[in-house]
User: Fold this.
Amino acid sequence: MNRGAPNEGAMNTAMGIEARFQCRFEDFALDVTLTLPGTGVTALFGHSGCGKTTLLRCMAGLQPAQGRMVVNGECWQEDDFSLPVHRRPLAYVFQDTGLFPHLSVAQNLHYGYRRIASGARQIDFDQAVRWLGLERLLDRMPQKLSGGERQRVAIARALLTSPRLLLMDEPLSALDDASKQDILPYLERLHDSLSIPVIYVSHATGEVARLADHIVMMAAGKVTAQGPLQETLARTDQPFAGEDDAAVIVKATITGRDDRWHLCLAEFGDRQIWLRDDPRLSPGDPIRLQVLARDVSIALNRHRDQSIQNLLPARVEEIRQGRQPGTAIVRLVSGDTPFLSQLTSRAVEQLALSPGMAVWLQIKSVAIVG
Amino acid sequence: MGPEWQAVWLTLKLAAVTTALLLVIGTPIAWWLARSRHWLRQPVAAVVALPLVLPPTVLGFYLLVVLGPDGLIGQLTEHLGIGLLPFTFEGLVVASVIYSLPFTVQPLQNAFAAINPQLLEVAATLRASPRDRFFSVVIPLARPGFLTAAVLTFAHTVGEFGVVLMIGGNIPGETRVLSVAIYDHVEALEYSQAHWLAAGMLAFSFVVLVSLYSLNSRFGNGVVR
Assistant:
């Protein structure tokens, strides 16, 4: 968004975000130490009640906690020092939007904007309005908006404070599917053109797959795994690997199209995969594919007498017991791209799978997530 | 100005001054009562509500004692050169402020409690300081509460009698308010004058309440709670 503006933080971005927090509640304790990249979208991912929203509130200063918070070289909290919320140059998008009911859309947008010194503004009012498609909504009152529209206003209002860190607390979870589809493209554009770091709390794999670059997995107030999205999701020891919606993300490029069969070809590394055609895609487009572990099966030989179209040569890297008895989770690498496959333990034994083995991956279906 | 008009004018002046003072004093008390979890909250709430249950004469009696020459505050005011407050307009104002306190605090407290606390967090993340949040979020959202508080306080002060009689007496132009004037007329069997004032008050009260309700429902439509 502020691509054209000189980026004074550019030198510091390498320093990233340091967050360390401890706080105790009656039934739950948060104890987290994180070093996050200073750009891109980091997903805080975990089941509800794992403490991800509490952590986000600690970062914002909304939840008092012992700890330390440094954002790209700027210290917000350390030892006895803690900036009050209104002095932290952050923006926070709440789950249920928190639009002021006594103010119109335009007045809501102006609320934060006019509290920023004009010299410190990096995002122009009209730009944000255009960006989130709010031109025709400016005079409306919040209660006359749909759920998706409300969330778009909340996002624009947050951006208009020219934050140095954008915190988003499940911004889509209160929305129905149609509104989610309405708002996801806006979030993607945000991701593609915004240079400020975003921390995005979510429990929905689809959203994370689509938006995140980096992922922090949490359970019971602690971090269980973290790292770049693609790598981390493909780890067999991450807490979600054994679950039903375990999946990996493949970053690919559209390279071709087959009009006769309504398919298009996506390439990643030196591998190719066929997708169902989508009129919005054209050659050269970068896409993210989500491949569920349960949609990946393994064959020892290349079978041509079966229906699955996407067969890739791969190597077994690791085999691990699944969460359910009698299941196994296998990590494979095809080219440089990791995949997970969910199998029964019996299949693992019958195929005599072991690390290092060359096999064929059969991918039953692929979802384009972004 | 005839004595009747003098009583009307005095009553309106007393009610206006009391309402203005109480909005200033009652707002922080109501805010604290609505938000605090301090152990003193319940006792303070009870003290604020006392004038609702006490007979006005009891309140007036104690005020007379405390503000009088032997009372703590009486000695203080004399020491400060203000003189004694009983049987003066200022004394009436002090008494009215205490007597009408619950009528200001309770509507405000309810209005504050109805504000979603998340909106204050939102305002904080949008760079509003605590003071700024109070003026830009709390006051506009509690506007119907402020209106109710102001109207109830004003009307209740106009209608007070027992406290006034105890602490103000019946000095024309100083403490002789409408309700006392009506009482005097009735005592003197001047029913037509009493009617004139009483009917006026009845009409006044009715108009006040009707405008309050219609204003509140108009605000209510604009604001989702």
User: Anything to note?
Assistant: Residues 70 and 338 of chain A are 33 Å apart (CA to CA). Chain A has two domains: 8-229, 247-368.
